[in-house]
Amino acid sequence: MTERMGKRRSQRWYAGTDRNSYIHRAWMRRGLPDDAFDGRPHVAIANTASALVPCNMHLGDISRSVANGIWEAGGVPLDLPVMSLGETQVRPTAMLWRNLAAMAAEELFRANPIDGVVLLGGCDKTIPALLMAAASVDLPAVVVPGGPMLTGHFQGEPLGCGTDVWRLSEEVRAGTLDPLVFAASESSMIRSPGHCNTMGTASTMAIMAEALGMTMPGTAGIPAPDSRLLERAQATGRLIVDMIDADRRPSQVMTKASFLNAIVTLAAVGGSTNAVVHLLAIAGRLGVDLSLDDFDRTGSGVPLLVDLQPAGRHLMDDLFRAGGLLAVLREVQDMLDPGAITVTGKPFVDHLADARIWDSEVIRSRAEPLLGEGGIAVLRGSLAPDGAVIKPAAASAHLLQHRGRAMVFDSIEDATRRLADPDLDVDEDSVLVLRGCGPKGYPGMPEVANLPLPAKLLARGVRDMVRICDGRMSGTAYGTVVLHVAPEAAAGGPMGRVQTGDMIVLDVPARRLDVDVPTDELARRSPARDAVGAFANPTRGWERLYIDHVRQADTGADLDFLVGRSGHDVARESH
After folding, report:
1. Given this model, what pLDDT does residue 174 score?
2. Which of 176, 272, 306, 504 has the fewest Cβ atoms surrounding its Cβ within 10 A?
């Protein structure tokens, strides 16, 4: 027992007979048995449940199942509420606080007497933030995703959470859908607990966690109300105790090979462009050399196999019943690095042998993909020297090579106001350019890149146009949208010097994004004042810290002083 006590990190708090160890033990004796302090592993359950984060409201139930598994395996479970971010609720944008949530969780993991941590997340930013924190501290860690909601129906049709909001709201603006009918669909969309049921960012990041090896294989995508999720949560509780005994840490699981496997997965499932920013940030915490170009090199030849909204027709509970992520990845197993392991300690590919496709309409075979290439394309050129991204699977094929006149907006408020103007000088060939929406400029890089189309063009039947932005778009959104343009306008990027009337050239096959203006002329122009920080002048608090230290989208938009690992050692103790 003495040997076991000496090995546990938590015993640095609890072992001994001095005053400090007495305090640590005594204050925790609120139901814990005597043997809780004899060297058993103490496991934090990092829980992002919140009534203000609707997608994560049910995580308390999952936490209890995890705790049961930890007790069963001989550990001590400790629920640890951590900062939670709801994509739909917080203003001005949840992305403003992803790094704060990661920093706060990191400090809590390091400061407390724990030997490992189970990460409970669901809504878009919670899983990335928890993975960033776990990577920085590098204690044994495993993710349990909260799972997607069940599909709701309205007037006999399935509703894709998020995707159908964008679609139906545009039909209202076009005058083809009664606003009262639109409002009536609201109560049908959210049928159950869980996050968005499309292949939006929440579903994508749960899948990325599994592809990185950070969940029990086969967990990502289990619907939130499904009893099998609770079963898997309890099994994860048992697993984390084994991981602590084996000292199996995030840095051993999330290697470069794991990130490349995640990029293959991102392409095969048609995942959200937001995964690019989050994966880059997680890799930065680990010191893994991952770049924007890795997404193009590794993902460009991967077929899109999952027919889910917004790139396809079906929804997440369809993916689960059709065989789930493992069935998808069995089709592209030859594209995966066999050396990458999971939290089980076994190679990821070892978990694919028994996977099967049960519905080939939802999960396509390698021989009959939805698209031959499903990867996210990385664009460079005079408008995006450090890169921009586009999701071809969600775009209109006829717009992937396009030349058009720029219509420039200096803020989302400017765009919202002017796009409703019936006299706006714009046609279907125009390119809508929205700037001032990057990490610094907004601040926080909001999901506004999928601009609503001009009202006058909607009325004429236009349903897609080329749109370019230094911000992000929801993973549930669709359209020919170029986003994450770096450097952003507020960081001195050429986006700030584009003018209405300039010719924009998009060539996705050639991976180019250019403004057809002579280089010297573009350099002589003064940046547009409203696009370079008119809204980004806080004097205090997190926003001030964020603006001063946030990096650009092409490196993950983390804070410069949070890149890399600090480990879990805490040297000083004083009571």
Report:
1. 85
2. 176
